[in-house]
Amino acid sequence: MATPEQAKLDQENSNRKSSNLAGTKPDSSSKSKLGFKSKVNIKSTLSAWFDTKADNAGYNTQVDNSEGLEADESDNRINWVRVLPFIAMHLAVLGVIWVGFSWFAFWVAVALYFVRMFAITGFYHRYFSHKNFKTSRWLQFIFAFIAASSAQRGPLWWASHHREHHAHSDKESDPHSPRQHGFLWSHTLWFLAEKNFTTRKRRIKDFSRFKELEWLDRFDIAAPAALALLLYVVGSLLESYAPALNTSGGQLVIWGFFISTVGLYHATYTINSLAHRFGTRRFNTPDDSRNNALLALITLGEGWHNNHHYFSGTVKQGFRWWEIDITYYLLKLMSFFGLVWDLKPIPARVKQQMVGSK
């Protein structure tokens, strides 16, 4: 259920879009426009791979994109140039044919999967999106940078779209509802759509005041590029000075960056797609959210999605002792060292409502 603040924001957004789009006629022939955009400003879109504010990325500027508003909520068309890096990430995995396998590269890939998954679930999600705990300015940037190295855009973009999702979960304005647009859209296509390229700044004003987060959001390629470069340098040094590890610069890039990142992509995306389709429902929420133990394992606790949609104001997503929530365990551990604090607990009223439930 949307908060009074969210409801007010939604109304302002609706009024603003109505004003900006006055005189335009909606397309009544279909509920939404889905497909590839026929006319693309290739130069601007290519520039936006490196600077997301480059000429507004060649997107429709009929509305104030600095506020993160969409030109047309029904326009789900995809800018085909934006798809190319995403496809390239998957094709690069085939590089394993040439670089081969080593246990060192394998465990680097596994370690980077879990470290970056924690940065996404603990900080992109529970911190930037829901403010479930507090931390210092320097630590929020460090983990924002680590999460950004997963190539899932910047912290402000990620959190603003997630807040939009909670405000309209499984309704027409939900950015990635499988109920509204199907599995493929909710799993991948939604973030490739033109209307979802910009950060919804009116949803994330609280963190937009930090210039370093604005920079990271604008140049969201910086963190992934830095990680790939670091892996290449480390791998090349190990090839020369620790040949027993049987690794190389190219091998660490393929395994530690591309394979690890693609695995991270699709594990994260399952929460938007599969966690709204498969699992159990402890709470009768107005959306389709489910609790799924398998998804909770591969996403360090995010699979307890019905719990989360029922009450997103707690740092814990596993409401029962047996609901494994590794992200919470790690945040709790960090709190013992004073790195994070004020972790929001499950309120007594929610615990009372769970009495007798599975």
Automatic annotation (TrEMBL):
The regions listed as transmembrane in this protein's record are 80-98, 104-126, 219-238, 250-272
Keyword DNA repair carried by entry: no
Does ATP-binding appear among the keywords?
Answer: no
What is its membrane topology?
Multi-pass membrane protein
Subcellular location per the Swiss-Prot or TrEMBL entry: Membrane
Q: Which residues form a coiled coil?
A: none
Q: Name one Pfam family in it.
A: FA_desaturase
Entry keywords, A to Z:
Fatty acid biosynthesis, Fatty acid metabolism, Iron, Lipid biosynthesis, Lipid metabolism, Membrane, Oxidoreductase, Transmembrane, Transmembrane helix
- Please tell me where this protein is predominantly located: membrane
Query: Among the record's GO biological process terms, what is one?
Result: fatty acid biosynthetic process
Please indicate which superkingdom the organism of origin belongs to: Bacteria
Domain Fatty acid desaturase stretches: 102-326
Gene Ontology MF terms:
oxidoreductase activity, acting on paired donors, with oxidation of a pair of donors resulting in the reduction of molecular oxygen to two molecules of water
Recorded GO cellular component terms are: membrane
Annotated region (Disordered), positions in chain: 1-34
Q: Report the family membership.
A: Belongs to the fatty acid desaturase type 2 family.
Question: Which PANTHER family does the entry mention?
Answer: ACYL-COA DESATURASE, DESATURASE 1, ISOFORM A-RELATED
**What protein name does the entry list?**
Acyl-CoA desaturase
Natural source organism? Aliikangiella coralliicola
Q: What lineage is on file? A: Bacteria, Pseudomonadati, Pseudomonadota, Gammaproteobacteria, Oceanospirillales
